[in-house]
Amino acid sequence: MQSEPRRQPANLALIGFMGTGKTSVGRLLAEQLHFQFLDTDEMIQSRTGRTIADIFAQEGETTFRQLEHQVLQDLATRKKTVISTGGGLPTNAENLAALKAFALVVCLWASPEKIWERVKNQSHRPLLQTGDPQKKIREMLELRAPFYRQADVLVNTDARSPRAVAQQVALQFKLATRAKP
Ligand code: S3P
């Protein structure tokens, strides 16, 4: 019987809902693996010279999603990079397929309650600036779960520190990329 060829991803991508710790875990992972660290939101901000909130407010979410898609295309040739993605990026099937082509895709998962605990004192996320952000989190998480579940690896972050999550993800990456016997 022929086994499927093993993927040898050169990069590691973190996907997941807002507030699941992608950026802090990503930075720790990059240190541990001696990889570079890139964050798609930071790339968009430095390319446009504007904050994500400004882009949403002045041009709307559609323009933001186009910028997100463009940034991702430019990452395809990277090696040894940990990429932290905006929470909505993998909800575009093309984006998710592109990520999988050049990275091991790891989803950081958290319950709506934990997400709320982590984001409630922050104000930089336009999608959560609503009258009932807790309801919005529950609704969006449910809609996005089918995309997040397509990750190669899913890690629950509810009861783990960013450091513990980073260690677990680093182990998964090493297992996924170790040389074939
Ligand atoms: C978004 C998540 C944000 C940012 C933008 C939209 C989303 O990134 O890309 O506000 O659609 O979930 P984080 O997941 O890093 O907060």
Query: How much is the radius of gyration in Å?
Result: 16 Å
Shape: globular
At CATH level 2, the architecture is 3-Layer(aba) Sandwich
Strand content: 5-15%
Please give the order of strands in the largest beta sheet: 2-3-1-4-5
List low-pLDDT spans: none
What summary fits the major beta sheet?
Answer: 5 strands, parallel
CATH superfamily membership: P-loop containing nucleotide triphosphate hydrolases
Small-molecule binders here are: shikimate-3-phosphate
Task: Provide the succession of SSEs.
Answer: EHEHHHEHEHHEH
What's the helical proportion of residues? Answer: 40-55%
Whole-number count of domains: 1
- Reported by name, the CATH topology is Rossmann fold
Specify the CATH class: Alpha Beta
If you had to describe this structure to a student in words, what would you say it looks like?
This protein has 181 residues and is an alpha/beta fold. The chain has one domain: Rossmann fold, CATH 3.40.50. 51% of the residues lie in helices and 13% in strands. A five-stranded parallel β-sheet has the order 2-3-1-4-5. Helix 2 packs across helix 4 and helix 3 crosses helix 4. It is globular and about 55 Å long. The two termini are 17 Å apart. The model has no long low-confidence stretch (mean pLDDT 94). Shikimate-3-phosphate binds next to loops.
Give the structure's gist in a few sentences.
It contains eight helices and five strands. The protein has helices spanning 22-33, 40-48, 52-59, 61-73, 93-102, 112-119, 133-148, 162-177; strands spanning 11-15, 36-39, 81-84, 103-109, 153-156.
